Amino acid sequence: MNSQEQMDKKTTAVIRGLIMDGTRKANSGHPGGAMSSTDMAYVLFKHHLKYDPDNTLWINRDRFVLSAGHESMLLYSLLHLQGHLSIDELMRFRQLHSLTPGHPEHGLTKGVDASTGPLGQGFGMSVGMAIAEAALAAQLGTEIIDHYTYAIAGDGDLQEPVALGAAATAGHQGLGKLIVFYDKNGAQISGSTDRADSTDLVQVFKGFGWQVIEIDGHNHAEINQAITQAQNEKDRPSLIIGHTIMAKGAAHVEGDFHTHGSPLKEEEIQATKEKLGLPSDQKFYVSDDVYRYFQSDFSEKRDIVSQWNKIVADKSESDTEFAQRINSILNGDQFENITVPEFKAGEKMATRDAFGKTLAHIAQQTPFLIGGSADLEPSNQTKAFADTVGEFTKSDRSGRNISFAVREFPMAAMVNGIALHGGFKPFGATFLVFSDYAKAAMRLSAIQELPVLFVYTHDSFYVGEDGPTHEPVEQLAGLRAIPKHIVFRPCDARETAVAMKLSMEIKNRPVSLALTRQGLPTLDTENLYEKVKKGAYILKGEEHETPDVILIASGSEVHLALKAAEELKEMKVRVVSMPSMELFDEQPKEYKNHVLSTAAQYRVSIEALSTFGWGKYVANGWSFGVDHFGLSAPAEELEKEFGFTPENIARLVRERKDQ
Hints:
With 659 residues, the chain is an alpha/beta fold.
């Protein structure tokens, strides 16, 4: 064994020691999988990963996603050896306000490229990162963007269908710079994996168009060779299946599935440390030579970054367009000064159509808008965007329309990965009723504060003949319940265009648009940008008088509220358009009290969806909506069946006013 092999062996022993000590001190965590993945992760980080030791956000770094996020102590140990986490933080594993939470959190801990833990989603995000790398390289040049995306996945990741859906896309797109390690240790929380699954993943991934490499996941020579082979494959993503042993290195419990989710006992840890050649009486032990060895190539890495900086500087000097693009990316101002199209007052247009026109209009102004639809381009009105920017394909990375196929959850995970990579504003589109399929990934969008746009058309029972399976009822309430997530339900073409402009400008939160299929009149509203930016505004009625009733609505029901107000001639009626509850709730108390006059306690909300969530606005009034599933019939018949007529709303307002 040569000196490098000796130090590799010693360093992996130290990492396993940190994993055991961290989970034991927290009395919580998952040591078994982390120990089985140690060799593959170590060889990658020490001998192959390209990164800047001084800047974990360098845009041309290799990306790494620990899809098996429960193995977080493995990643934290590697980040400690890189110099980004202190021993004290390792000791605070899973404790309040530590930098070492139970699962990796992007934006909290330096060097964590994605928040992971919900299994399968890290895999999906890594596919999105690989898409972003290929697309950004087409924009800026391969001398500027040229890196790999790596991920470590476990059995649980690949049992989640979201991973397989994303894998199918990766294979179809020929993402050759995506390399995924599959830690195949045969054990999970409930026992052996063969109790529940017998899928031949070799055949599955080959069928997806991947290169599949099988190795001993503890043999460093085989790991090195597999990584090199994967790096040399340009046309296919690679799955490196590492056959490993749960809790590798443990003195007595190697292969025991109980180690998956439970810290090792103290006597087992001591015995394991003796077996690995570590001081059994020391906690969180790292010797100085391990630090020196792990960081021995930092000067070379800094030279690579320095050379890259020179290439950027030289190209910026000779290419003004490139200079503008790279600077806008690095400064995060790709979407400043974006304009939106004008729509004529009185023109009748579905808000999905207004969105489509606005999307294509914005796409002509910036190369950094990318995304697509889950096989619903004509319905979501993303076809004009596709025609404008071209298709992102295996043979043409310059296109920016992505055909996600009917894969809403993988689509949402992939757009998260695109956003995490940086450089683009990504979007994904489908029907509002299918937001349920995407919601788990949307939750991670919000947790990670990603500037992702989700586009949902066919936003109410006005879908009509498609019936209750396709008529969203509770979905919008569910989206509004996600913290740090903004929902827009615009009432006409102009509100839609403004919502799109705001969506482009928002940098640290995901946004959802809920859009109509049916045509709506375009209103003539002044200063609309400032009004929509505040989430709600007075559309009809005197601003400085106390109304008898306030009708609050979003989307298509704003027009219903306006017509109902005309019916209520004997009352002073204020109509409030509320395109975004979230933005309105964030306004100063004075503005909210102005729009929803505190002197007017009789308020009625109107929305062709569940009334859930509207109660906080109606004071002593009531909410009108659809607290039941829909029916299959033409929309005109359904609005009468469900009472969504001006006459019925006016009647109810009168009848209930003094109750």
